Amino acid sequence: MVAATSVVAAVALTGLKLAVGLLTGSLGILSEAAHSGLDLVAALVTLFAVRVSSRPADSTHPYGHGKVENLSALFETLLLLGTCVWIIVEAGERLFVKDVEVDVSAWAFGVMAFSIVVDYSRSRALGRVARKYGSQALEADALHFSTDIWSSAVVIGGLVLVWIGKQTGAAWMSKFDPLAALGVALIVVFVSYRLGRRTIADLVDEVPPGLCEQVRNALVFPKEVDVSRVRVRKSGPDSFVDVTLDVETCTTVEAGHEMADAAEAAIKRILAGADVVVHVQPKAPGARAGEDTLALKVRSLAFQLCKGAHEIRVHDVMGHRMLEVHLEVSEMLNVEKAHELASEFEARVRELEPMLDRVVTHIEPSRTKDRQRSVCVLAEESISVLVKKLACELDANCRPHDIEVRRIGASLEVSLHCTLDPGTGIVAAHEFTERLERILVEQVPGLGRALIHVEPNPDGPEPEKT
User: What strands, in cross-sheet order, belong to the sheet with 447-456?
Assistant: First the structure.
């Protein structure tokens, strides 16, 4: 509706300015008529673009029709630049080649004042709706009408100076009319550059500086989760964001889905209404920070073809490079199938690193998830027994519960709750948990980290034993 109303306003302004410009001979007014005529064409293109871009996505336009708005804005920019060329050429002729009598009348001032009123109302209405719907086409139309306000003011100033020249007999002041036209042209060139720059940026999927980094910073996850890729593109008023999260291989589908939901919600707080796609993929199992680049590639390849790899070593002996790796394969394979898999693995490794002189693989059955799960269960049982034993030895009256053991890469982590007497001092409680954590890490095989949460015993201190 606001685009259609702008078409009506552009028709009225173009007709009035053209008629008064021809009657008075003012190049300033005629340049404004040409400017408004282009605004009319732009308003028609905007109306068409808004109607097309609002269509839903289909099989041939999976990202919607928003780019039509960008194309319409580019078309408007070319029209504006074409008008500027005509205005500058005509102004140059009037300044240096020919003299044209300008009839300054009340009609000239009236139509320009009316133009300012209409342009102001249309630019405000278009700008408000453009911000509401994120429409670049409507924003471009609003920019057109707002620049008309300033260019009309320049023309009025030129006409005032021409009138003063006629009243005072200063013929040279008639040159202010073509100078005013040049002022209009300069304003239009500036606006065209800004509009064209933004339009081309959207057409080539350029995003504002820092936007991808802003999206990346909004994705706050534990250190085990890496944000490996962030991509943003715009299509008209719509934004599309692609994010890739690298998670530990032991992450469940449910946990991965929760991470994706959290990422999507965080992004939409920055880009409201954005179409967000979050891809969750496993890291190479057991990858360690600072690990050799070749070792990382080998570990990732082993995870793709087999069940994993460990004990990856690269040796450089007398100018020859050799790779040794323990390759984990499925327990269900026989020797023949396992050897074929290892041969394929070795060939792929040589493709990754042609400088390798030799690749030696040691085939062994994989450490299945069932084994990992049984290790966690055994660790929970041993930790529970150990905590109760230590609590008795340290006379801390600790009652462990909610013991959870997780495998993170090649090591285990444990978290547990421990109730203490409500009157226990915080210093004593902290010293107890620090000592307990240290003893657990030392005595539980494979345990890399322990986290103990203390809380008061809701039943109060235990009665003394007789």
Answer: 399-408, 411-420, 447-456
Give the C-alpha separation, 263 to 225, whole Å.
Answer: 12
Strand-pairing partners, residue 412, are: 407, 447
Asked whether the domain spanning 293-367 has the same topology as the one spanning 211-282, the reply is yes
Q: What amino acid is encoded at 93 in this protein?
A: E
Q: What is the pLDDT along the chain (466 residues), one digit of tens a residue?
A: 777 777 777 777 777 778 877 777 766 677 667 767 777 777 787 777 777 777 777 777 777 777 777 787 788 778 778 777 877 877 777 677 666 555 566 766 777 788 788 878 878 888 888 777 767 667 777 776 777 776 677 767 777 777 777 777 666 666 766 777 777 778 778 877 877 887 787 777 777 778 888 888 888 887 778 888 888 887 766 788 999 888 876 677 777 888 888 889 889 888 887 889 998 887 754 444 434 567 767 877 887 787 777 778 877 766 778 888 888 888 888 888 888 888 999 998 888 888 888 888 888 887 544 444 444 444 555 666 666 676 666 666 677 777 777 666 556 677 777 887 777 778 777 787 888 788 777 777 667 777 888 788 766 555 444 4
Measured CA to CA, the distance from residue 244 to residue 231 in angstroms comes to: 9
Return the CATH class of domain 2-203.
Answer: mainly alpha
379-397 burial code (b ≥16 CB/10 A, e <16): bbebbeebbeebbeeeebe
Under CATH, domain 370-456 is a member of which superfamily?
Cation efflux protein, cytoplasmic domain (3.30.70.1350)
Q: Where do runs of H (alpha helix) occur along 97-228?
A: 106-133, 136-168, 176-203, 211-218
> Does domain 293-367 sit in CATH 3.30.70.1350?
yes
What's the rounded Cα separation, in Å, for the pair 285 and 52?
49
Those residues whose C-beta lies under 8 Å from the C-beta of residue 325, and which sit 6 or more positions away, are 298, 302, 309, 310, 311, 312, 313, 359, 360, 361, 362
* Contact (Cβ atoms closer than 8 angstroms) between residue 433 and residue 454: yes
Give the CATH number of domain 211-282.
3.30.70.1350
The alpha-carbon radius of gyration of the chain (Å, integer) is: 37
The CA distance from 177 to 161, in Å, is: 8
Find all residues with CB under 8 Å of 320, minimum gap 6, and list them: 357, 358
d(CA 47, CA 7): 8
In contact, 278 and 313? CB cutoff 8 Å: no
Q: Where are the domains of the chain?
A: 2-203, 211-282, 293-367, 370-456
